[in-house]
Design a protein that fits this description.
This protein is an all-alpha fold. It has 4 helices and no strands.
């Protein structure tokens, strides 16, 4: 969905491009960290007893799940389940 008028979007892109490369990287990293924080906060809200593995799975699905076919996605989710067990 894109409900931003083209002229406003052009102004926004121009404003972003005024910053140095370092400033744009910092902004991108900050936005990614905020997005992760929002996902992390939403997991216990839906399931207060969610495990660390459930949090890893939720982060993966939100950010990268759409990039994989269902079979590959399931393999990755199983691997994420086992990560916590390996560190014990």
């Amino acid at each position: 969905m894109n409900d931003t008028p083209p002229e406003i979007e052009q102004m926004f892109v121009a404003m972003l491009m005024e910053g140095s490369g370092e400033e744009r990287v910092r902004m991108g990293c900050s936005m990614h960290a905020m997005a992760q924080a929002l996902v992390r906060a939403s997991v216990p809200e839906k399931d207060p007893l969610a495990s660390p593995a459930a949090l890893r799975r939720a982060l993966f699905l939100r950010f990268y799940g759409h990039e994989f076919d269902s079979e590959t996605r399931e393999k990755i989710l199983l691997a994420l389940e086992g990560i916590g067990r390996q560190s014990r």
